[in-house]
Amino acid sequence: MDVHCTTCGEPWNVYHLWQEAIFETELADKEAKAWRSLPRNRKLTPRYRAEFRAAGWEFGQGVINVTRCPCCPDDAQPDAERLQTKALLEAMLGDDEDGLAATFEDHNF
């Protein structure tokens, strides 16, 4: 399944976001591997958000809501309507990341 960056529209495979994107950060390999098994509510603490941001990633409430990615031009801004819609879908679907990913894919979000 693919989800799309809110800013540039680049498609990203959900598996990559859940399992591989963490290795694009400066975290030690051991810590990056441990991150993959953290509960959803601990995957984007301020520390991890900062690590991802340094690697070019920004997310909504979860890592499958890509609001900015490494492919985004430096001066690009997220599409405000898509940003709001994706945030509402995250709020509605809560912890159902599979359902959220399927919904994002169905609507090219």
Sum up the structure in keywords.
109 residues; 5 helices; mainly alpha; 4 strands; two-stranded antiparallel ribbon; globular
Care to describe what's here?
43% of the residues lie in helices and 10% in strands. The chain has helices at residues 14-20, 29-35, 46-54, 80-93, 97-106, and strands at 2-4, 11-13, 58-59, 66-68. The chain contains five helices and four strands; from the N terminus they run E-E-H-H-H-E-E-H-H. The mean pLDDT is 95. The strands form two sheets. It has a two-stranded antiparallel ribbon. It has a two-stranded antiparallel sheet with strand order 3-4. It is globular, with a radius of gyration of 13 Å. A hairpin with a 6-residue loop joins strand 3 and strand 4. By secondary structure, it is mainly α. The chain has one domain.
Structural class: mainly alpha
Using DSSP, what is the number of strands? Answer: 4
Strand order of the largest sheet: 1-2
Shape: globular
Distance between the termini: 11 Å
User: How much helix is in the residues?
Assistant: 40-55%
Mean pLDDT metric: 95
- What kind of sheet is the major sheet? 2 strands, antiparallel
Radius of gyration: 13 Å
Strand fraction band?
A: 5-15%
Number of discrete domains: 1
Low-pLDDT stretches: none
Secondary-structure element series: EEHHHEEHH
SS summary, helix count:
5
